[in-house]
Amino acid sequence: MNGPAATDVSVVVVSYNSGDSVSDCLESLRRGARSVSLEAIVVDNASSDGTAGRVSERFPWVRVAANDENVGYARAVNQGIGLSHGRYVLVLNPDIAVEDGAVDRLVRFMDETRDAGLCASKLLNPDGTLQYSCRRFYTFWTLLLRRSFLGRVLRNSRAIADYLMLDYDHVEARPVDWVIGACMMVRREALHDFGPMDERFFLYFEDVDWCYRVWQAGWRVYYVPASVMRHRHARASASLRRSRHVVAHATSLFHFYEKWGKAIYDVKRYRRVLSGALLVLSDAIAVNASFALAYALRSSMKGLLVKPMFGVAVYTPFVVFANIVIVLTFAFLDLYGARAERESGPDLLMRVLRATTIAAVVLMASTFLTSQVVYSRLLVGAFCVLVVVLATAFRLGLRAAHARLRAGQFDVERVAIVGTGEAARRLAERIRSRRGAGYEVAGFVDTGGAPVQATDVPVLGRLADLPALVERQRIGHVIFSDPDLGGDAVADFLLQARRSAVDVRMVSGLADLLTRRARVEEFLDLPVITFEREALLRAGAGLKRLLDVAGAGLLVAVWSPALGVSAVARRLRGAPPLERVERAGLGGRSYRMFVFPSAEAPSALARFGIRHGLSSLPALLNVMRGEMSIVGPAPAEAGSIGTFDARERLRFDARPGIAGPSQLAGKDRAAADGDPAALDAYYVQDWSLGGDARLVLAWLARSAAGRWEEPAPARGSLRDRNVSS
Prior knowledge:
The protein has 26 helices and 23 strands. With 725 residues, the protein is α/β, with parallel strands linked by helices.
């Protein structure tokens, strides 16, 4: 062992209930590395056999990282790489026995072969026979033979022989497609170009993917027969029995071909067409299911209504017409576009309601224009209401199913970030922190600007190579991260890649100003961005105030019994029913906000009230008094107006609200998206009655689900920025 600066090789071993094997592997390292300095790192994936403790006790020169759970092989390897310092990183399976001088020979080969990004030793079985550990990349036929009963029937197939490289004498060193992950040495400087292991591979195929990316990055993979190790190889995945190994292998196989398969990539590039068709099918099912339910409802009321109920066949023209009208109306209002996939549940409900209302007008009018007026108005009305409910529910169900797929790292889209500066690094960190969003950072594209900061995200190539990189790296999204790069670079790429069907985005320097009220339009034959007049005009503010009074009165009437019981319970405990705290409101003026008294150890009833948003109800009295609104920016601390910058002070142009964007964002999103003051400023700029309705629906949904968080009083970000600068 030497200091980090003098270390030649960092050996990373991942263990899982393999204490004896790890000990044998570490003992063999003494024989295999006689002329090079090395450090050894064992990453233990929550073994139940005490591996971590045994290694620490027996090998004090080994650094042990003990995980609390099994995080998977690839992630554990990356964990070890992050702790290493050597010029080369040698990844070993715990069931490897290193022969004399094997590590020395790998280092010598890497030093002499400058295009080698990754190399591997010759592996022998315990009986000394050759293990075919270097391979050619899979083909469909090879995969079929290796993973089905056909392999047993056609075991002498030429395809299998080519895949296992049986034509190679395994004597001379040579480039190969890939090597199995039992022994892999990587050059640290090359990691900058192809990156660490892909952590979506829990087990299996992480070695194939790593080698594939080595070749994609312009480096080579070598097999070095002069270096020999023994491997107690046990391919549990080769068995056709149902087991966790088989499931893990199949999952990793799908991940690999989803990531690199040309056919799957082509399907992904036209996902909009497929998702639109799926939504049309979902809406058609919702329309017909709504009619069936509405007809059943009307039939159940035969004894209560005077008019007769006609048979289903009579309504056939109406149902056909309704399918056409509703789907066309949804299409006209862009409910099959990209926006429909991204918007929140309340936003989606409002747009479906708007589209269905328009379609309902057409349908109701058609019942008057028909030659025989036989349609039940009650049935048609119930049908339209059910369409709103079922169409929204089906879409949210599809979205939830898709979210579960993406949470499992399926249907992941690869993202290329154009730029290597601080903005690119922050964007990469944001994407990687949201694994369930369905995006993977493939790498940076060098624009010749600021060098990339310390990161494990590879640099894929130069800006001039971007069109070729998109195809080679299976890129689905290209994001230009530097707003100073200029429109010419974006325009050139769009011209070159116009047939690639890749999504292109650009981080704008106007991001703080662009709300939904900003639009691109033509002005004197020039494309310009137009900003609408300020949102909270007198008429809009007056209508908002009228709705506040009506809504607060209704909520107070509904919840007054519960508030009364809570007040009595607090009185019996000797506590005041309500308290008043100083807050800054409209125009920055102070007011006293009604709240329930806080307690260091809140009761079960109080905790229930916080989870379901009932703790905010006393503020309805402030709404009635005109000091607050049902929807608005988060109440700010009294006297805190000086902590907000010029844009953040927009919050004081509106009454503070019980519900609002920063209150609904929650602590996790606020931490990820920056200071919540920016969300409130955006709300004031982008205010609309429809937006308030969506926020109210989101508030009610979160309260009903018991996921409401008690919001803290808002503070500006100006002071924090001054300190950090």
